Amino acid sequence: MNYLPGQAADNQLGEPALCVDVDGTLLRTNLLYESFLSFAKQKPLLLPLVPFWLMRGKPHLKRRLARSVTLKNAHLTAHQQLLEYLKAERARGRRVVLCSGSDEEMVRRIAKQLSLSEEVLGSDGTVNLKGSAKARSLVERFGVRGFDYAGNSRDDLPIWNQARYAIVVNASRSVQKASAQQGNVEMVLPKTSGTFSALLRVIRPYQWIKNALVYLPLLTSHNILHPGNLCFSGFAKNRYDGVVVLRCPFTHLHFLAQTTAARRCDCPVFALHRANHARRDCNLDSGVTLASSLLTVPVSELGFW
Predict the structure, then answer these.
(1) How far is 94 from 88, CA to CA, in rounded Å?
(2) What domains appear along the chain, each with residue ranges and CATH number?
């Protein structure tokens, strides 16, 4: 971790520094997943190198990905309420520090995109600045109770334990409850969207309902239980029934295939979607984490095949 020279812990207001986590807190995503997807899109021929980078440790993988890709549109994935609070505190003269388990070089670029302080702490290719390691780093730099900290996960509990005040952002109920037991929670900024409702938008169930209309001819014909209509035979008595018989037994596979195709479409172009305000609320930036969204791909693939 590299620190800017000549910086003291005190600031113009005489208040402790405001330290902010990035992944899942300031940003509604994870920079490691984002950088990997961008790397897969921009440099697919180098993907075989990723396992070898990972064998040298997660911090090394983060550093290599950070030096291989450039992420844009960070402001579109930011937790807007927290971002506005940070900018207001910085305008008052308070010291704002981004501290993340993501690679320091990438965090510095994110800070620049968001017009926040250039003072950042992050993984350096050797140390994974997360959990207890981050807590030790902040205590060494600011002292016990010498900083306020904004985080979102259980990995942040040891850091909140050393901070003056805890700011809980975008956290689950269990994390909110655990942080409240420490007795120093100053502010709680809830999730901007529930995971379940966001996942529903991701898998597009309205498309499934629309495609279920292919069953309507069978229902109106009163022959839905006929073996020839339930099993694919490859033949039909007439052209109209032939279309129905051919498609209906595989309708559930069609639904899954459509979801899979949609996920495949979203993953490579998620950055473009974020720049399009008309599509931001129906893709990977809809409030569900990128990792949870990507889980819908293998699940739907399994169902399809």
Answers:
(1) 9
(2) 17-192 (3.40.50.1000), 196-304 (no CATH)
Q: Provide the 3-class DSSP secondary structure of residue 17.
A: strand
Q: Could you report the per-residue pLDDT of 139-198, keeping only the tens digit for each? A: 999 999 999 999 999 999 999 999 999 999 999 999 999 999 988 999 999 876 555 555
209, exposed or middle or buried, with CB in 10 Å at 0-12, 13-18, 19+?
exposed
Q: Which residue has the tokens 């069609």?
A: 254
Tell me how far apart the alpha carbons of residues 223 and 305 are, in angstroms, rounded to a whole number: 28
> How many residues in the chain?
305
Distance, in Å, from the CA atom of 224 to the CA atom of 102, rounded to the nearest integer, reads: 56
pLDDT means per 10 residues, the chain with 305 residues, are 40 81 92 90 93 95 93 78 93 93 93 86 94 95 95 95 95 93 92 58 61 65 61 40 41 50 48 49 47 51 42
